[in-house]
Amino acid sequence: MPSSSPSVPRKRSAKTVGSTLIAGPSPAVAVPPIMQELPAARNHSGRADGGARTGWTTGRGLATVLTHMSAEDRAASVDEHPGPGVLLHRLASALAYAGGAVIAGVGLMSAASILGRATLGRPILGDFELVEIGTAVAGSLFLPYCQANGGHIIVDFFTLRAGERTVRALDRLGAVLMAAMFLVVAWRTVVGSVDIARSGETSMLMRVPIWIGYAAMVPGVVAAGAVALAQGLGVRTEERAPGD
């Protein structure tokens, strides 16, 4: 009778990827870190298989990673590779914070002027001039954030029964028109600022050059035009939830 030899267990190949050891009967597959945390996948026959034994293809692996990525992972990916919409929203947010700082300064100045008038009989000279200039500049700095998040008043009486695609097309058309308007306003503001600077016009009491207020309004208006133009081209600029 032929002698039966004891079965020798098949040697399993192993490979260390980063700090993770992957073992299996087939050559080890380099699994990205995010895929190491995925649940068991299924092979072509529908049988459950471990992630290390599944033949991940490029397309399937990428789709699975994107599907199973958490909101934090997607947010981190956006932070590392921000698109134009994210960059524009960050710019709009920064300008909005600057506008808030201007408004806060105007409010503190007004409070100090009122207290000075009530207690010492001496308000801040030209306080209303500073209020006029400050509120105009702050308003222009708020425009990009308002445009980025769709904060303008919209009359949708005629589009209540329109389809989603129609409304989206009209929104993009409106964004293009808003971009044109903002850029025209920015152009005329620059022209006006240059003309006023040449004439040497100043405020009545504090003798503040008027062109400074005009020039300070240009960045906000230009940024609002850039945001509106991006929206007209289909770029999302509104504030998003993490991982959205």
Topology (elements, then pairings):
Elements: E1 13-17, E2 20-24, H1 33-36, E3 41-42, E4 48-49, H2 58-68, H3 71-80, H4 84-119, H5 127-148, H6 164-199, H7 210-232
Antiparallel strand pairs: 1-2, 3-4
Helix pairs in contact: 4-5, 4-7, 5-7, 6-7
Care to describe what's here?
The chain is mainly alpha-helical. The chain has a domain at 84-232. Helix content is 58%, strand content 6%. The protein contains seven helices and four strands, in the order ββαββαααααα. The chain has helices at 33-36, 58-68, 71-80, 84-119, 127-148, 164-199, 210-232, and strands at 13-17, 20-24, 41-42, 48-49. Strands 1-2 form a two-stranded antiparallel sheet. A two-stranded antiparallel sheet has the order 3-4. A hairpin with a 2-residue loop joins β1 and β2 (20-24). α4 packs antiparallel against α7, α5 runs parallel beside α7 (210-232) and α6 packs antiparallel against α7 (210-232). The longest helix has 36 residues, at 84-119. It is elongated. Residues 12-26, 37-60 and 62-69 have low confidence and may be disordered.
